[in-house]
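Key idea: predict the complex, not the pieces.
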Amino acid sequence: MSYEMWAEKYRPKSLKAIINQKEIVDRLKSFVKTKNIPHCIFAGPPGTGKTTAALCLAMDLYGKGYREHLMELNASDERGIKIVRETVKTFARTRSIGEIPFKILILDEADNMTSDAQQALRRTMERFTETCRFIMIANYSGKIIEPLQSRCAPFRFSYMSQEDQDRYLRNIIEKEDIKILDEGYDAIFEVSEGDLRKATNTLQAAASMGKVINAETVYSVIGRANPADINEMIKTAMKGDFLEARKKLRDMILKYGVAGSDIIKQIHTEIFRSMLPDSWKVTLSEAIGEADFRLVQGADVEVQLSALLARLTEAGQELSRGG
Amino acid sequence: MSTIWTQKHKPQTLTEIVGNKDAKQQFLTWLKSWSKGIPKKRAAFLHGSPGVGKTVTVETLAKELNMELVEKNASDYRTADAIKRFAGLASQYATLFGGNRLILLDEVDGITGKEDRGGVRELTNILKTTRSPVVLTANNAYNPRFSTIRKYCLIIPFKKPTVREVVSHLKRICAKEGIAADEEALKFIAERSGRDVRSAVNDLQALAQEKKRLVIEDVVWLAGRDRKEVIFDVLRTILYSKDSWEAKKAVSNADVDPDMLFNWIYENTPYHLTDPHDLAKAMNYLALADIYRKRIRTTQYWSLLRYVVDFMSSGVAVARQRTKSSGWIPFRFPEKIRLLSRTKGERALQTSIGMKIRRRCHMSAVRSIKEAMPYLKIIFENNSEMAAGLSKWLDLDEDMIEYLAGNKKQTKTIIAKLA
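Result:
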């Protein structure tokens, strides 16, 4: 039995197979027709088909041997200036053999590139336009420096509708012979929020359990895929078990790599949703703001956040006394 | 047992010597070339940091090739006369026995200008005329003092072995001594030694001798000769005296690395100040101490250290107001230190899985870890068949499969299906 990650196995292999982002796909198809493309920026949330569109564009443009004309770089792994000076330049400067005179360089997760590297890219992009076209992929185009943006045609990708997502999943479900209830579809859309990769991964993990997929299966997958439950930690601290809360915090930071800023953000949201007296909410907000600022300054995430958890434990005690 | 482990576990064969494969090979080739007559360079100059295996390489090879080793080192006299007498004798006699002799002048950077007057000049003469192979060792062959010597020598640089290589050497020793040692503990020793094998083995002996198990807690003490009792005394004063001056004094007098001490206080405070109000106050001071630690790191303005000390000692001491003493509670080893060293291995494994996913899935290793791995874990725990297929597709090795599957039994099932 052969298995792949379904997110990869069912990734469209041609622009024709992309089910959403119609306007974008139409423009890309016209590039293929004229056999010419500008430098591009594909921006948008995760799982909306940016990388897929770039790959499909290359496949449609070059046909079977597209690999020879294409280079994929991932800025999260290779984000420094060295990669631009060496790898990118070497690839960009040499002429492609064949009908189409340029190659394509996909710079994925480009918003993670250092600004130095982006600056270095400026010249490279201009000098080698004849031989290489760049497709920069990013979640936020704002993180790409102005001069690069102005050299590229921008494309905004948006989240998938449930209708589109269901259609895409149904194809997988038929081919892989999975049993799923309608509520399963709804649950997957709810948890994936239009992120097709997350949806597909959730479906595959749910299918691996070997039962009919219902809403509960989906939620249990999501619960286990995100064991770092910030809410749970807040509750534990407020209930008075500081030691357990600190343990959860440690796991989050060290085992699951949750960012300190994400934890802070959620604590802030939860405090204002809680049953605490208003005066406490403001007092805690002050402490949260202070911790947030300290993290920005580079203080130790665990120490600062566990001081915050101690405040929550204190607040929890106050609450139980008052109520 | 009173034997020193660096002697007891000295490598017996060339392959047992840690690292420096190329250097060892180069040296062996040169030495063997003597059997075909005197080579162009009559001396070899092995150089590199202390404890990288220069001398042991010479000794081991002499034994393997059945050569007689004549040796002089820094502790001997180095005057021109002394060298002449020794080396001259050795190299002349050697021919009588068919060149089956190796002359080692160990630690030649020990030759000092004053006492070993003329030593270098005399050495040069010997290197030009010797009829037996001569080996010099030094930490740095490019010291100007050796400029005349160098042209008569084959220079062979010895590099520091990697941490991994040092660890595997330590592992071998532990196996022979019957000690079950945690990988992380050995890694800590190897890193601490600055990849100096000799010093790592010495440290290992000091820490592990007469023990059945060696864990990370046993070795972090190396970090600064900090003794447990000192730390426990400080903790007792801070957490129970309620006296800010006593607490401050205890920390200042402790002569323990403040960062280490901070971690101990941070770990133990919640176990002893159980009232939430007291705890919040104490943790607030610790957070402040942390801020000042950070400020010192960025500004290098070390006089700020006094505030770190204030907050982590007096700050915590005065926080005790409502908490009642409730009998003896043992002090705990800082989880922060333990977790950091444990998860280091885990993080490395995660990254290597991330790289495998990256090869297949058009996404960075960093994102693969966050976005694909949690789902893979669920699949690997639940469905061995799908897991086997994915292992093949991603080209995962056994360690990776075990990490994703979470236990040995499931790992076995998956691997069985791989075949």
